[in-house]
Write a structure and sequence with these properties.
Belongs to the glycosyl hydrolase 28 family. By secondary structure, this protein is α/β, with parallel strands linked by helices. It is 14% helix and 28% strand. It has four helices and 17 strands. The protein has a six-stranded mixed sheet. It has a five-stranded parallel sheet with strand order 3-5-8-13-16, with helices on one face. The chain has a four-stranded parallel sheet with strand order 6-11-14-17. The longest helix is centred in the middle third of the chain and has 11 residues. The structure holds 2-acetamido-2-deoxy-beta-D-glucopyranose (5 copies).
Amino acid sequence: MNFEKPLLFTRPPIWAVFAIAITIVTVSVINTSTIPLFPTQRVVPGDAAARDSGSVASKRSCAGFFRGGAARAVTASIREFGGVGDGRTSNTEAFRRALRALERFGDKGGSRLNVPEGRWVTGSFNLTSNFTLFLERGAVILGSQNEEEWPVIEPLLSYGRGRERLGGRHISLIHGDSLTNVVITGENGTIDGQGRMWWDLWWNRSLEHTRGHQVELKNSHNVLISNLTFINSAAGVRIKTDKG
Ligand SMILES: *[C@@H]1O[C@H](CO)[C@@H](O)[C@H](O)[C@H]1NC(C)=O
Ligand SMILES: *[C@@H]1O[C@H](CO)[C@@H](O)[C@H](O)[C@H]1NC(C)=O
Ligand SMILES: *[C@@H]1O[C@H](CO)[C@@H](O)[C@H](O)[C@H]1NC(C)=O
Ligand SMILES: *[C@@H]1O[C@H](CO)[C@@H](O)[C@H](O)[C@H]1NC(C)=O
Ligand SMILES: *[C@@H]1O[C@H](CO)[C@@H](O)[C@H](O)[C@H]1NC(C)=O
């Protein structure tokens, strides 16, 4: 035992890693104008889908600030795009295919992608506007452990450079830029970033690019995240209404 070792040069205690890594998001509403910044009432799980389906928002939930409008015109399952929820198969292409197909309904009443019970490994994919990602009961999205499925993109404007490494950064697992009317919700499904790999890369000094967020929506408005559990993120959840 070496009690004299300065704290900074040891690995951080496991609680610190997990305190950063575990983000449980119940409801996150971002909008710029006309609405109060903070909800005055407690969050009630479940309102996201209620709003999504067009019913009247509960006065007790900040989901009420979300302007969902009518139910999505089209609902599809990730299985229809070749998804396999076996905890091993990579669903990166399935999610990207699904989003490419569903974004066409953006101006035709919007769309919803259901993720059924199962363990769905995936790398990064981009969301689209007028869209709901819905994790059914028992659905777990698992962040891919293959770095190549987290492509490197431009650094954030607000940093002007990579955060942990100069240059580009890994894109977020669930990513969106310049979107509006986006809901990420479900029946208490889980988004597990499996971020341990990225922390290992960092601590063993082989991380080449800044870690990707678990969810990042930038320059985006009218966003609602609810009724989900977020665990083991590589770099948290980031929602921003402006560009950087
Ligand atoms: C929210 O999650 C709970 C717990 O799983 C579930 O019973 C409920 O149906 C969900 N609400 C909606 C609106 O999806
Ligand atoms: C989203 O839906 C609204 C209302 O139907 C529509 O005006 C808007 O153009 C849609 N956005 C996109 C990006 O399709
Ligand atoms: C997702 O969007 C980013 C820009 O925000 C882009 O660089 C990337 O290629 C997109 N990924 C896919 C799979 O379309
Ligand atoms: C939601 O899921 C979390 C983690 O899996 C669990 O701890 C919690 O009890 C669940 N809540 C409900 C209402 O099912
Ligand atoms: C660093 O950690 C990664 C992820 O666990 C592992 O794949 C890699 O082999 C490690 N490299 C070294 C030099 O220990």
